[in-house]
Design goal:
121 residues, mainly beta, 7-stranded mixed sheet, 4-stranded antiparallel sheet, 11 strands, 50% strand
């Protein structure tokens, strides 16, 4: 069974950057879809960015992060990172990575514990 562990969260000022890392163990990331979610206090969960590995790797982003966030794998480390730039206070949330079979509509059969991101001046 695949296990996921996030790292890299913290506090940053608006306009700043952070990179979150999802360490995958128990299997290799490229057998799964991998999705970063976030959940702010009192709000519904949101999908942020998705990567689906295959003959050609596909990427997808929520509109509210397009052009600011980038999801990318590191095959040597078996990790999937989320690089976040031009952060806004509205990006404050618990971020977690999830994985599922390539055909999974939600891509969240397996989840990590999450890492907190706080954007504040």
């Amino acid at each position: 069974q695949v296990q996921l562990m996030e790292s890299g969260g913290g506090s940053v000022q608006p306009g700043g950057s952070l990179t979150l890392t999802c360490a995958v163990s128990g299997d290799t990331y490229n057998k799964y879809c991998v999705r970063w979610f976030r959940q702010a206090a009192g709000k519904e969960r949101e999908g942020v960015a998705t990567m689906i590995s295959g003959e050609y790797t596909g990427y997808g982003y929520a509109n509210f992060v397009k052009g600011r966030f980038t999801i990318s794998p590191d095959s040597a480390k078996n990790t999937v990172s989320l690089e976040m730039t031009r952060l806004e206070e509205e990006d404050t949330a618990l971020y977690y990575c999830a994985a599922g079979p390539p055909g999974s509509p939600e891509c969240d059969e397996f989840r990590g514990q999450g890492t907190q991101v706080t954007v504040s001046s």
